Amino acid sequence: MRKIVLTLVCALAAVSLSAQTYQPTAENLKSRQEFAEDRFGIFIHWGIYSIFAQGEWYLQNAHGINRDEYAKAADAFYPHRFSAEEWVSAIKASGAKYICITTRHHDSFSMWDTEASPFNIVDATPFGRDILKELADECQKQGIALHLYYSHADWSRDDYPRGRTGWGVSGRDRTQISWEHYYNFMNQQITELLTNYGPIRAIWFDGWWDHDEDATPFDWQLDEQYAMVHSLQPSCLVANNHHQVPFEGEDIQIFERDLPGENTHGLSGQDISRLPLETCQTMNGMWGYKVVDQDYKSTETLVRYLVSAAGKGANLLLNVGPQPNGELPAVAVERMKQMGEWMAVNGESVYGTVAGDIPQQDWGCTTRKGDSLYVHIFELGYDRLYLPLDCKVLSATALATGEAVKFQKVAGGILLEVGKVQDSIDFVVELRTK
Ligand code: GLC
Question: Quick one: 339 and 371 in the same domain?
Fold first, then answer.
């Protein structure tokens, strides 16, 4: 019996020890808070894959490309229309507060001046410019936070221990596989990213899922890597798109192509944690530039998606895939401009809010900031809306115009006399509550 008790005590001690291993610093907690208040970021998927114009998975999806033949695209990468100033201005115009850019995707090409591999934008292209440096400087200049996407999975290097994707790629030397070598390479790159480009607010890892079906669980040695990130920049948030509940050492929780709690794409069935949340979504269909992919979501859909994310207490990271010439697609720029116009008027009901008192409904959703409860009405078949509320409502105002909206107290809540919905995208009514 004593032995059992002792074992139990030891087991519990081990659990609480591991649960307490990662203690976010004060800078990190501040950064989480700022991140959560931002609510809106723009994702950029850009690399030499844009030249093929088939999306960022082309190397794998074309089934049978030799990695050395694919790599020749680097020598034709000359994005002469790239302008960090134009990108950041267009992104800021959307109302987004941060940018997350792919520094190295699964195809292994590095979009910065890295010493760890010659397969990078400075050494392997005639363009020769460190676009990450230009972007990082511009972000600082225009006051917008920078996040870096970094792929754990790699379909081109010899040393990467192959997982369940990348099998469509030929030309790799199996005899050179070495996790240790690959892990050191990644850590060298991550160190560069967190040393040479100023403040980086988040590292957004992706590709863990490449080994999620291994017979023996694959050890990515994340603890050590995350600790390295936090020691290089304590305020840098660690995110991982592994489609699981967050692991030890992570600072935010990511969802892909679905809002938290929804799972229409099969990637977001995981429980929702108490960490700040973010959902990434495409503006058209693919992440990287794809020539046939012109099916852009409407501004109405995009604004409602952003607002619905806020209604679930999450950020939206909305993707744009720049063209091979370095420009952001004109349609994407137009959508961002229109989103920004809406946010300029209604942003206070999104930025700095938390999920509202009433969860998502057919008609829309709610967000809250202090004593203000924002009612977001997307579609309403009636001119009155019943809102079940525990709090007392002092006033109701149309956010965009400042006009009073009539309401009546009824059992269990209020009846809002919405009348004619004044904004076809999202008519926001601010309730002052007590
Ligand atoms: C997936 C894809 C990848 C994309 C990412 C964005 O993990 O593999 O191409 O970058 O989602 O969420």
Answer: no
The residue out of 353, 380, 405 marking a domain boundary is 353
What pLDDT is recorded for position 20? 57
206 Cα: distance to centroid of ligand 1 (angstroms): 7
Distance CA 31, CA 37 (A): 10
pLDDT of residue 67: 98
Count CB-CB contacts under 10 A for residue 1: 5
Asked if residue 287 has its Cβ within 6 Å of ligand 1, the reply is yes
Is residue 122 included in any domain, yes or no?
yes
CB of 253 closer than 6 angstroms to any ligand 1 atom: no
Q: What is the CATH number of the domain that holds 388?
A: 2.60.40.1180
Residue 359 lies inside a defined structural domain of this protein: no
The pLDDT, as a whole number, for residue 420 is: 77
Are residues 111 and 179 located together in one domain of the fold?
A: yes
Rounded to the nearest whole angstrom, what is the distance from the C-alpha of residue 321 to the centroid of ligand 1? Answer: 12
Residue position matching structure tokens 């410019």: 129
Q: Given its phi and psi angles, is residue 143 left (phi above 0), alpha (psi -120 to 50 degrees) or beta?
A: left
In angstroms, what is the span from residue 430 Cα to ligand 1's centroid?
Answer: 37
The protein residue whose alpha carbon is closest to atom 4 in ligand 1 is 287
Query: Do residues 25 and 86 share a domain?
Result: yes
Range of the domain at 65: 2-353
Count CB-CB contacts under 10 A for residue 3. Answer: 7
* 250 plus 387 within the same structural domain: no
Q: How far is the CA of 151 from the centre of ligand 1 (A)?
A: 9
| pTM of the model as a whole | 0.95
Regarding the beta carbon of 57 and ligand 1, being less than 6 Å apart is answered yes
Query: Does the beta carbon of 43 sit less than 6 angstroms from any atom of ligand 1?
Result: no
Cα 324 from Cα 80, distance rounded (Å): 9
Is 334 domain-assigned? yes
- Rounded Cα distance, 64 and 274, in Å: 43
User: How crowded is the C-beta side of 107, counted as CA atoms within 13 Å?
Assistant: 34
pLDDT of the residue at 17: 42
Q: What is the CATH number of the domain that holds 253?
A: 3.20.20.80
Instruction: Select from 150, 164, 256 the residue to mutate for testing ligand 1; criterion: most ligand atoms less than 8 Å from CB.
Output: 256
Q: What is the mean pLDDT of each run of 10 residues along the chain (434 residues)?
A: 43 44 96 98 98 98 96 98 98 98 98 98 98 98 98 98 96 97 98 98 98 97 98 98 98 97 92 97 98 98 98 98 98 98 98 98 97 97 95 97 96 93 89 97
Ligand 1 centre to CA of 135 (Å) is 21
